Amino acid sequence: MESVQGLADWLAALPPLGIYGVLFAVSYLENIVPPIWGDTLIVLCGWLVGIGTIAFVPTVAIATLGGSLGFMTLYAVGHRLDEAIADPTRLRWIPRGPLAAAERWLKRWGMGVVVANRFLAGGRSVVSLLAGASRLPVLRTTIWATLSALLWCALLVAAGSWVGTRWDIVLNALGTYGKVITALVGGIVLIGAVRWVRGRRGRRAAPQETEKTPP
């Protein structure tokens, strides 16, 4: 928590415009560079809202804008990636089977996954990339991704404002939440991978059994 305290002290020393600028940059970059402490910074900004340094509405709006733009940036990357994967001579190191299965899953659940993406700790970047690769409608994706960011950011800012200097309570809760969500997502991915491997083996075995069957 000492590093978080240092970040809080540094933020508190900035003028309001500086705080908003840092908030926007980090909210945008955390989608592209996930290890960035995006949620931590938003909680700390909530604390600054609580003590009157900055205002609630612009804080939520700026964090939402940064998060939404970051999501759509990776959406565009995923769109281009899908074009490259469609060419069998490019990006051969990417396994086509699991990626195609993930895209089918996202197309099935569509905007529900996009709305939930901000609440999926550790999976936000993956969702945005797959949304682009699956070619989900741009306008609808933008709207629902923005709504997801708005709900999440408003929740964190409100929580940070409410607990005041005890923002460690919120951060500890976020840490526990992140571990649970990561475990659930990891379990789903593992199950999907096992099913894909078994299905692939079954498809390979079927022609061999047909060849062995006597006329």
From TrEMBL:
It is found in: Cell membrane. It is a multi-pass membrane protein. Residues 38-161 form the VTT domain. Keywords: Cell membrane, Membrane, Transmembrane, Transmembrane helix. InterPro entries: DedA_domain, VTT_dom. Its main location: membrane. GO terms for cellular component: plasma membrane. PANTHER family: ALKALINE PHOSPHATASE LIKE PROTEIN, UNDECAPRENYL PHOSPHATE TRANSPORTER A. This is VTT domain-containing protein. It comes from Rubricoccus marinus.
